[in-house]
Design brief:
The protein is of the alpha/beta class. It has helices at 16-26, 37-43, 45-54, 69-80, 95-107, 139-144, 156-180, 193-199, 227-233, 242-245, 254-266, and strands at residues 7-11, 32-35, 59-65, 86-90, 116-117, 120-121, 127-131, 185-187, 205-208, 237-240. Strand 9 (205-208), helix 9 and strand 10 form a beta-alpha-beta unit.
């Protein structure tokens, strides 16, 4: 893929005016736009997806479905009919929910291949991704929910290493469960890319949020990496929001930010 096709811009906004401004500026420079919970809750997922398509953009429907298998399957079927490029469900919804989502996408009535919204032909099938562990969560966050066991080493470095291994083991197990359920890939932290490349099939897609250029702040992300590092480690797609949509003043406009990121990715050998 070209560098620009690996970039997914997060449309973490609440109205169509902001969507229009960002998509019209960035569509020539990125591969896809992520519609998240803020936009879905503000104006509705189908309306947002259609609007992005009309403006010439591809859609990653970031609904993060997490419910009983029948409900997840129904949601997957509905999203597939929107003609989106990809969507996701939580791996923690379980194997059966993931399997049913895959089955729903494969058997739902497809979008007519001749249907075109604006300048974009709708996808007749959608990639299904499993969300492993949110990039805003670290060991302490997972421990507070009793998802990982208590670790208590006297040595600070040993403690951090043990915490890191606990997170990696959890992410690996969830990714392998998603692969067994025939999902197309997972959403994971950049810190787990190399691990999953060792354990998962070569064609299994890795989509990584928590990507921050060196010139941008981490915000509320905990397990982060810059775009070039993430691609070099083996990510297929990187999801980037605020560093592009609201870049530091010294960087300039969203277009200037995305051009800078593309250059950084293109330099990866």
């Amino acid at each position: 893929m070209e560098a620009k096709d690996r970039i997914i811009v997060a449309l973490d906004v609440s109205n169509l005016r902001e969507v229009k401004s960002l998509v019209e500026q960035l569509a020539p420079y990125v591969g896809c736009f992520k519609i998240g919970l803020e936009l879905i809750s503000s104006i509705g997922g189908p309306q947002a997806a259609i609007y992005v398509h009309k403006l010439g953009g591809e859609v990653f429907y970031d609904g993060k479905f997490n419910d009983i298998p029948n409900t997840v399957a129904g949601a997957a079927r509905a999203v597939k009919r929107m003609g989106v490029k990809m969507f996701n469900i939580h791996c923690l919804s379980g194997f059966e929910a993931m399997r049913r989502a895959r089955e729903a996408v494969d058997t739902a009535i497809p979008v007519d291949e001749t249907i075109m919204i604006g300048r974009k032909i709708l996808h007749t099938n959608s990639l299904v991704l499993g969300v492993t562990i949110l990039t805003s969560l670290d060991y302490q966050g997972l421990y507070s929910m009793d998802i990982v066991p208590r670790i208590n080493y006297a040595d600070f470095e040993e403690q951090k290493e043990a915490e890191h291994k606990q997170i990696q083991e959890l992410v690996k197990n969830l990714a392998l469960l998603a692969q067994d359920a025939s999902l197309d890939g997972v959403v994971c932290s950049p810190k787990e890319i190399s691990l999953l490349r060792r354990w998962c099939q070569p064609e299994f897609l890795l989509v990584t949020p928590g990507v921050r250029p060196e010139w941008a702040g981490k915000d509320d992300q905990k397990r982060v990496m810059n775009p070039a590092e993430a691609i070099k480690a083996g990510a297929d797609y990187v999801v980037i929001g605020r560093p592009i949509t609201n870049p530091p003043k010294e960087i300039g406009s969203p277009v200037e930010a995305i051009k800078r990121i593309i250059t950084e990715i293109e330099e990866v050998k």
